[in-house]
TrEMBL record:
Residues 268-362 form the Histidine kinase/HSP90-like ATPase domain. GO terms for biological process: phosphorelay signal transduction system. CDD domains: HATPase_UhpB-NarQ-NarX-like. It comes from Motilibacter rhizosphaerae. This is Histidine kinase/DNA gyrase B/HSP90-like ATPase. Keywords: Kinase, Membrane, Transferase, Transmembrane, Transmembrane helix, Two-component regulatory system. One of its GO terms (molecular function) is kinase activity.
Length: 364
């Protein structure tokens, strides 16, 4: 919309310049040259909407438009009567160069608008040959327009991004609620039924199945009830996300204060912790317990996952990798590395395993 509005301003400004030049043509030393300059401006006025429509060509288009604006102003001194120029006669392009200032402001913010305004103002001073009162007024107006329009454009783009993010979050929440209803009516009911019917069973396998069903029910309820983490530049409370992992046999210790972290980084770190807890459930042995500890060290966060399970001998992970089983390397070590951090695994047979994840707070 803003580029269409600018195209309209450019066309009206050129029409105004043509009318004024037609009335003053007789006073010009080189009237044909004046018409040629206006013809070039007409060609750009027609081509500019196409040039600005594609994002890739907007940068070059800004340079072309500013060069034409400055060139048209300087051409006035070469084409018009010197006496008229010194007397402050209207320039050949009149207000058309303001379109370049507006374009720079819209695309590059207030800094771009200011830079273009100063270039056009300098060309106006060179055309006049002195810093007259009218030149000063025009320069101030150009600078104000460039800065204010640029600042407004930046604010408008920010508001559009926030609106788009809000709509995306609202759509994600609606979809989450829909899925939550479907899960509640199906999967959660089945898990709850299995947990109730196997509770207290003398059969160890059935009792274990019941405990697993109860844990998965709690985890799934937490998942569908928790608000989705914001995307992009949003933040999430890592302490709250890790706290949701607490379950039978899993103790989570986090600081009392929130531990804010970029949402994407927090999600990846929590996924690594979940992978470590999955390893405890599947490989640490029956009855193994796990402890998750979060430490906020300012520039980095440290998450430690420790269990009292069976542990494993040195070299077992390397053997698993050679056999193509890359679960630990991909889901734990790989995630920490992608976040610019480290994952350290230590284990002793019969004494459990410890996974320490050290991740910088900011992306490196």
């Amino acid at each position: 919309m803003q580029w269409r509005t600018l195209a309209g301003f450019r066309a009206l400004a050129l029409a105004y310049a043509v009318v004024l030049y037609a009335r003053a043509e007789a006073h010009y030393r080189h009237p044909v040259g004046g018409w040629l300059v206006l013809l070039v401006l007409l060609a750009w006025t027609a081509a500019a909407p196409v040039a600005y429509a594609a994002r890739r060509s907007r940068g070059p288009a800004l340079g072309v438009e500013l060069a034409l604006a400055v060139g048209a102003l300087l051409a006035t001194r070469a084409l018009d009567d010197p006496a008229r120029v010194e007397a402050g006669a209207q320039t050949l392009p009149v207000v058309w160069p303001a379109a370049a200032v507006i374009a720079w402001a819209l695309l590059l913010g207030w800094r771009g608008g200011l830079a273009a305004a100063l270039c056009v103002a300098a060309a106006g001073v060179l055309e006049r040959g002195s810093f007259a009162q009218t030149t000063l007024h025009n320069s101030v107006l150009l600078v104000l327009a460039g800065v204010l329009l640029g600042a407004s454009s930046t604010l408008a783009r920010g508001a559009q991004r926030e609106l788009a993010a809000s709509r995306a979050a609202e759509a994600a929440l609606r979809e989450r609620e829909r899925l939550g209803r479907a899960v509640h009516d199906g999967t959660l009911q089945v898990l709850a039924l299995v947990a109730r019917q196997t509770a207290g069973s003398p059969d160890p396998e059935l009792a274990g199945l019941g405990r697993a069903a109860a844990e998965q029910e709690r985890a799934l309820r937490t998942l569908v009830s928790r608000a989705p983490a914001p995307r992009g530049g949003g933040t999430a409370d890592l302490a709250a996300l890790l706290g949701a992992l607490a379950a039978d046999g899993v103790v989570v210790a986090v600081p009392a204060e929130p531990v804010p972290l970029a949402a994407g980084r927090a999600g990846e770190l929590v996924a690594a912790v979940q992978a470590a807890l999955d390893n405890v459930r599947h490989h640490a042995g029956p009855g193994a317990r796990a402890w998750v500890l979060l430490e906020d060290l300012g520039d980095e966060v440290v998450v430690t996952v420790r269990d009292d399970g069976a542990g494993f001998a040195a070299g077992r992970l390397e053997d698993a990798e050679r056999q193509g089983r890359l679960g630990v390397r991909g889901s734990i070590v790989g995630r920490a590395r992608d976040l610019g951090g480290t994952a350290t695994l230590t284990s002793t047979p019969g004494e459990g395993t410890e996974v320490e994840l050290v991740v910088p707070r900011e992306a490196t």
